[in-house]
Amino acid sequence: MSHFRALAGALRGGSFLLRGRSGVGARYNPCRGCSSGAVEPSLAACSSSYVEEMYYAWLEDHKNVHESWDAYFRNAQATASPGETEERRPSSLLQGRGMSQTPAMSQKVVEDHLAVHTLIRAYQVRGHHVAQLDPLGILEADLDCFVPSDLITTIDKLGIYGLEESDLDKTFQLPSTTFIGGSETTLPLREIIHRLKTAYCGHVGLEYMFINNVEQCQWIRQRFETPGVMRFTHSEKRTLLARLVRSTRFEDFLARKWSSEKRFGLEGCEVLIPALKMIIDKSSEAGIDSVIMGMPHRGRLNVLANVVRKDLDQIFCQFDPKLEAADEGSGDVKYHLGMCHERINRETDRNITLSLMANPSHLEAVDPVVQGKTKAEQFYCGDTEGKKVMSLLIHGDAAFAGQGVVYETIHLSELPSYSTHGTIHVVVNNQIGFTTDPRIGRSSPYPTDVARVVNAPIFHVNADDPEAVMYVCRVAAEWRNTFNKDVVIDLVCYRRFGHNEMDEPMFTQPLMYKQIRRQEHVLKKYSDKLISEGVVTLQEYEEEVAKYDKICEEAYTSSKDEKILHIRHWLDSPWPDFFTAEGEPRNMSCPATGLEEEVLRHIGQTASSVPLEDFSIHSGVSRILRGRVDMVQKRQVDWALGEYMAFGSLLKDGIHVRLSGQDVERGTFSHRHHVLHDQEVDKRTCVPMNHLWQNQAPYTVCNSSLSEYGVLGFELGFAMASPNALVCWEAQFGDFYNTAQCIIDQFISPGEAKWVRHNGIVLLLPHGMEGMGPEHSSARPERFLQMSREDPDHYPEITGDFEVQQLYDCNWIVVNCSTPANYFHVLRRQILLPFRKPLIIFTPKSLLRLPDARSSFDDMSSGTKFSRVIPDAGPASQNPEEVKRVIFCTGKVYYELAKERKQRNTEGHVAIVRLEQISPFPFDLIKAEVEKYGNAELIWCQEEHKNMGYYDYVRPRFLTVLSNKKPIWYVGRDPAAAPATGNKVTHLAELKRFMDSAFNLKAFEGRRF
C-alpha cells in the first residue's frame, strides 16, 4: 500500500498526467476524498458512495471516468465471481477503508497498472541513456555508462516497480500516453517491455519529455512508439543506397586524386548526405521553395557536390595549385565557400533553391547569418509562417556545445522579429573535437543539451544505421512543418581520419582509432544488408558505384581545362538585378541625396504626431513631440529627426528599413521613440514611421535580445538577402560590439575580398569621451581603421567621380558625423550608391540634444549631399593667409574645440576642419584645405588616447598629402591601456590639458618633425 501511495503522490505532483487522446479529461476526474485533487484512484481516500457514483457512470459509458478508473473497474470485474458480476454492485468489487467486501487482489491490480504506467514513463524520459548510439561501440553518447535503475527491467529488478516475474505474462491496460500498442489497448508486460526497448533503446534515442506541450509530446510518441512505423519501401531503400554511394565515392575520389591535400572529408559520417537530402525532400513536399544552409568545413565539398549540386569540375579545379584567380574574391579556401543554386527536386518535381552560406573557420559564426538571411527571404516573399523558406544548420559536436553563439542564435528562435519559424539542426557528432575528448570538452551529457532551453526535441541516432537516420530526418522535417519550432538531429558517428587528412589522430585517441581502422564502412554494411534482403543485386550495386565513378572521372578531365577561377560561381547571395552579368555596378555615380522641403516637412510632421486615435502617450514623449513640432517650424532638425527623415524618405522610395539592436525602439538615450506605447492599454503600440505614405515600404524597428554576436550576425544575414534595404544594427554603447568582433573580423571587413559578396549593413556605434568610464566611451575606431583596405603612402589619382570610385574600391566606409544633416545624407547615400559597402557610423551621445548640433533644412534640401569634409566657415576661412593654426578633428570634439576657440577669442587665427568620412580618406579635400591655409601649422586633435582613435590612421595619409614636407602635430590624450578614465575629475583635467595644447600657438615650437 505504501508503494501505491508513493505512486499516487507522484501522480498528484503532476509527473504522470493521464488524458484522453482527444485532450479532454474524463467527466469524473478529481477524487473527492483527496484534498489535493488527485487524478488517480486512491481507494483508501475515496468514499464508498463516490466510488458507486463513478461505477454507475462507468457502466453507462466507460469514457465517463478517468482512464485509470476505467482500467480498475475492467480488471475488478474480470476477477469477480459470476454472481458478483451479475449483481453489478460496486461494493462487491471494491476493497479499502470501509469497503471490506472488495477482493484483496483488486488493490494489486490498480497498483500493478500504475507501476506499468510508471515503467512506460521511465523509458520515455530516460530511455535514450541506454540507446545503442555509438557506431564504434566503445563510448556512451551521454558520456555516462551508468544505466538508470528504473530502466533495468530484468526479472530480479522488476521489484523496483512492485512487480514480480509472474506479472510478465499478465495483460495490462495501456495508458493513453503511449502508442506502443498500436491498435491494441492491452498488452502482456513482457511485450510492453520489448516494445519500449525497441522504441527507446535501439539506434534512436529520444529527448522530448521536457517539452511542456502535451500535443507535441504525443505527436513524437506516435511517430516513434507505433510498432513497425520505421519501415521503408524497396524504392526508398534503393534511393538511399544510391545517395550513400555518391556520398562515399565522392570522398574516395578526392582521397585518390589529392591524397596530400586538406579536404575535411566526411568519412565516418557519409550518411549526412542522404540525411540532408531526405530533409530537403520532405520539406519540398510540404511546400518549401528555398532552403538556406550553414555548416562548418567538414563535409562541405560533399554537400556542395551532392546536395546543392555544384558542378564537380568547378570543385575539382580548385585543387589545381596553378589556377589563377579571375578576381580578388579568391581569398578563401575551397572548403569555406558557398553557393546558391535553383534546381528541380526529383522526388517532388518542384523547383527548390538551395543556398549554402560561405563560412570561415569560426565554426558556428555562420549560424545567426543563416537565420538572418532566412528571415529576410521570408519577409520579402510574405512568408509569415515559414512555409516557403526554411533554414538548415549543420554543426559539429564540440562546437555546438562549446561556442556561445549557438546559444545566442537558438534564443532568437522564438522572438517575433527574429524567428525563422523553426530550424532543423543536424549535429555531426564525431565524439571528439580536434584532439579533445568530449569528457574534457563539455560539461553537459550531450553536445545538444543547449537546445533544451527552447523546448526543441532532440533525436539522437546511430549514424551507421542509415534507415534509422532517414526516419529521424523525415520526422524532423515533419515536426518543423507542423509546429514551426526548432528540432535537433544528433548524428552520432566518428571521424575516420584526423581533424584533417594530414593529421595523426593516434597521438591522442589511440583506442578509438584502432577501433575505427577495424570499422566496416557504412556503405559496405548497408549494401550487404539490401543485397541479403533482395532489394538490390550485387550487379546493380556495382553498376551504381561504377556510374558515379565515371561521372567523377569525366568531371576531373573537364576540370583540367579550367585556367581561371571564377569565384562568382560560388556566390551564396547573388543579386542578379542589381549588378551586371559580370558582377559590376551598372553605373559609377551617385545622385545628390537632398530632398524637397515639402517632403522634409511631411516627415517632420508625422514624426511629431500620433497617427492613431484615442492613443494616450507619456507626458515625457508628448514633450519630445512638441519639441519636434517646434524644430520643423524653425526648419531645423536634431539627430533623431535627421535619422527619421532619412528613414522616412527611403521608405517613400520603396526601400525597406530595418533597425535592430538593444533598446533601439526608444533609443538607449531616450531620443528616438520610434515605437509609442499607449499608457492606458497594455501592449498597444504605434509606429508613426509606418504611417508616412500610402504605398510606402515597411519599416521594421525591433528591440533585440541582450546579444551582440548573434544579433549582428543575424542582421548581416538579413542584409545579404537584398540590396534594396537599409539594414542597421545599433549597439547600446559603441564598445558593446566587442563581443561581436568575430562577425566584424570574419564577415563584414573581408567579406567581399573572400567571397565577392557585397553587403550594405550599417553599424551605429555610440561613441564619445564624456566621463562615463572605460566601458561606455569608445567604439574603438582604431580597430575599424586598421582593417581598412587603403594604402596610406599612395596619393590616388583624382579622376572622374573620385568620391564614388574611392568608395567602390574600399572594403567599408567609416564615418563620424558631427551634424544631423550629414548623418541624414550618409544614410541616404548608402542606398543611392550603385553598389553596397558596410557602413560604420560612430554616433554621438551628448550631441543628441546639444543645441549647437542641429542642422537647417537648407543643409538637407534638393541638390545637397554628404560632406566628407566640413571646412571652417568662420572668420578664419575668410582670411586664410592670417590663420596660424588649422585643427583637423572628427566627431564630438569639434564642438568643444569651437567653444574653446570662442572663449579664447582666436576665431580669426585658428581654423577648425571636420573630417566626417575617415575611411576611405578624402585625400582630395584634405589637400585643398592644407593648400588653403598654406602659412598655418597643422594639428590633428582627438579626444581619444594617442594610441587609439584615428591618429595612427590619419597621420601617414596627411604626410602623403603634404609630401612629407610639413608635419602634422598630435593633440589629445596621452597613450593609455584603457579607452577612458572612470574618474570625472581626471576626465575634465585631461580635457582641459589637451584644449590648452590645441590653442597654445607656441606649444610645438622647437619640436622635431
TrEMBL record:
Chain ranges of the Transketolase-like pyrimidine-binding domain: 637-850
MF annotations from Gene Ontology: metal ion binding; oxoglutarate dehydrogenase (succinyl-transferring) activity; thiamine pyrophosphate binding
Catalytic activity annotation: N(6)-[(R)-lipoyl]-L-lysyl-[protein] + 2-oxoglutarate + H(+) = N(6)-[(R)-S(8)-succinyldihydrolipoyl]-L-lysyl-[protein] + CO2
Gene name in the database record: ogdhl
GO biological process annotation, one example: tricarboxylic acid cycle
Its EC number(s): 1.2.4.2
Localization of this protein: Mitochondrion matrix
Cofactors named for this entry: thiamine diphosphate; Mg(2+)
Gene3D superfamilies attached to this UniProt entry: 3.40.50.12470, 3.40.50.970, Multifunctional 2-oxoglutarate metabolism enzyme, C-terminal domain, TPP helical domain
One GO cellular component term: oxoglutarate dehydrogenase complex
Primary site of residence: mitochondrion
One protein family per Pfam: E1_dh
NCBIfam families per record: 2oxo_dh_E1, PRK09404.1, PRK12270.1
Keywords per UniProt: Calcium, Glycolysis, Magnesium, Metal-binding, Mitochondrion, Oxidoreductase, Thiamine pyrophosphate, Transit peptide
Protein name: 2-oxoglutarate dehydrogenase-like, mitochondrial
Family: Belongs to the alpha-ketoglutarate dehydrogenase family.
Stored InterPro entries: 2-oxogl_dehyd_N, 2oxoglutarate_DH_E1, DH_E1, KGD_C_sf, ODO-1/KGD_C, THDP-binding, Transketolase-like_Pyr-bd
Segments for region (Disordered): 79-98
Function: 2-oxoglutarate dehydrogenase (E1-like) component of the 2-oxoglutarate dehydrogenase multienzyme complex (OGDHC) which mediates the decarboxylation of alpha-ketoglutarate in the tricarboxylic acid cycle. The OGDHC complex catalyzes the overall conversion of 2-oxoglutarate to succinyl-CoA and CO(2) while reducing NAD(+) to NADH. The OGDHC complex is mainly active in the mitochondrion. Involved in the inhibition of cell proliferation and in apoptosis.
